Amino acid sequence: MKKLLFQFDTDPIPSVFDTVVAYDGGADHVVPHGGINTANVGALVEGAIFTRAPKDKKSTALFVGGSNLAAGEALFKAVRGKFFSNFRVSVMLDSNGSNTTAAAGVACLFKSAGGQLAGLSAVILAGTGPVGQRAAVMLAKEGVSVAITSRTLANAQKACDRLKAGFGIDVQAIEAPDCDSRARACEGAHIVFATGAASSVLLREDDWKNNPTLRYLADSNATPPLGIEGIDMMDRGVDRHGRACWGALGFGALKLAVHRACVAQLFEASDRVLDAEEIYATAKAMALA
What we know:
Elements: E1 4-9, H1 16-24, E2 29-33, H2 42-49, E3 60-65, H3 69-81, E4 90-93, H4 98-112, E5 121-125, H5 130-141, E6 145-150, H6 153-167, E7 172-175, H7 179-185, E8 191-194, H8 205-209, E9 216-219, E10 236-240, E11 243-246, H9 252-266, E12 273-274, H10 276-288
Parallel strand pairs: 1-2, 1-3, 3-4, 4-12, 5-6, 5-8, 6-7, 8-9, 9-11
Antiparallel strand pairs: 10-11
């Protein structure tokens, strides 16, 4: 029985990256569909769930992607809403690589912390985007006190409200439009995870190396200048100024491995639902292996 992965992308042109990783994850055939939304996905899901016999449904899987996390979340919910009884197949959400990237970054921080993050505090710089929001979920579920920054308080609070509604977690919103205010936001924090746009310096080296409480830093930006000045995109838990530092490419290998592993999991059963928490569990196990 061929392993078929149907890629539902909310963008007009499906992601080539997601297609390649799907094949590397074990799919025999990947069928990308672009411009998918809650209104037109129904027939596609029905085609996936009404065809194969129950024992063979594990060989059909769905992947929800695209650059817009909110649209992806809505599509993910609509897909699952079409399932009933044993008429279901496994499905994964990874809009803009948000789940796998955040999972790999947080898992590496978890590894650097010796497997214990509970009781620490974290600031996610420019955390209103897909990776930042997903990282907030994963850290909060580990017992970390989480704050996210944005250039405006309204944007930060909007993201926090979404996280509360979607995952039941409490996250602090901080307005931090410049390096000075972001340095102040990190005072007292143990963890900083930078998840801002490419080529935007979010935290200066002098500010974090002179911060007495910081222990762990991660930066998801691989385009110079990096989000956290003074670390390297290849850092893999490198000690810099007494802090464990992770660069985007340093935890990027784990991100790809997690993505491939999760695709493989989709074909192990017909009822897998892989979102932030499930993908993070895979990343953490792989990081500590």
